[in-house]
Amino acid sequence: MKRNIAMVALPAAAAAAAALLADDFVLRFLAEILLFGIAVMSLDILIGFGGLMSLGHAALFGGAAYAAAIAARQWGGDVALVLGSGIATGMVLAALMGVVVLRSGHLFLLILTLLMGQMVWEVAFHWREVTGGADGLRGLPALSLGPWTLSTARALFLLAALLAAVAFVVGRSFVAAPIGRALVGTREEPIRMAALGYSLFAVRFRALVLAGALAGAAGALFPFVNLYVGPQSVHWTQSAAMVIMLVIGGIGSLWGAFIGSAVYLGIQTYLSAYTDRWQLCVGLVFVLTVLLLPNGIASGLRILRDRLRRRGA
């Protein structure tokens, strides 16, 4: 009980402090970290718990971003409409992807998710009348919640923090529930799980749809935080970046997804101002993480915490 309270109280206190002390640029940057953290966490459910490697996850995130932006242009920036359109789009794209890819495995699964993701990119890049093509979509209306307008960086950050908290609780509940245990079973002992009467396709399909809903929710807010959405957000390179974030943060650790997102986006945002070779720095961090912390930064922090506790005892 105390652990659960700490897991909620500490991030809430950090979010409150950031909302009070940080400037607009930092708040938007932190909101972007939280949104990518949600998307990477949803990818972790597939890879870390289901063993389902995907290079098409950006299609769920970016496709929802496009859907939310288009819906806001047509009907206004109501938060319920924006989130609803993003979540629905993420779930639909995940369901379509699941029907095609989940009957394959390993290398074929990876290739099929890549192809499905690139099909979404083709639509976003070439359907210029709707998506803006290579120029993307800008000039979106401000988000609103009833009579309140959520256009300031502080409001968007708090909304992203609330969404991250809800998404983390949903993801944690899923992996702790029987369906989450069954998902781990399909990764470790697929033949035995099938012999016990489990449908491997059904278990994995539900996990993929949930991951699509979480990635879609994050993607729905992304255009309003970033003030832009373009075809790069659905490209396979964005999916690869999410995998890198996940490895750095820690596969199998839901909260490690936010650490990996912070490290990757921090290098991209701040080091790119000094050098064009910021991707080399990401590669070095990635290699060092794999060599020194195979289970990611989250695992290293957990080990450090346990050692400090033992010393204190």
Q: What are its keywords?
A:
313 residues, two-stranded antiparallel ribbon, 14 helices, 77% helix, single chain, mainly alpha
Summary of the model, kept short:
It holds the Pfam family BPD_transp_2. The chain has 14 helices and two strands, in the order ααααααββαααααααα. The protein is mostly helical.
Shape: globular
**Derived structural class:** mainly alpha
Q: What is the gyration radius calculated from CA atoms?
A: 19 Å
Helix-strand topology string: HHHHHHEEHHHHHHHH
Q: Terminal Cα separation, in Å?
A: 21 Å
**Largest sheet: spatial strand order:** 1-2
Overall pLDDT: 91
Task: Tell me the number of structural domains.
Answer: 1
Explained architecture:
77% of the residues lie in helices and 2% in strands. It has 313 residues and is mostly helical. The protein has one domain. A two-stranded antiparallel sheet has the order 1-2. A hairpin with a 2-residue loop joins β1 and β2. α4 packs antiparallel against α10, α7 packs across α8 and α8 crosses α10. The radius of gyration is 19 Å and the shape is globular. It holds the Pfam family BPD_transp_2. It comes from Neoroseomonas eburnea. It is a multi-pass membrane protein.
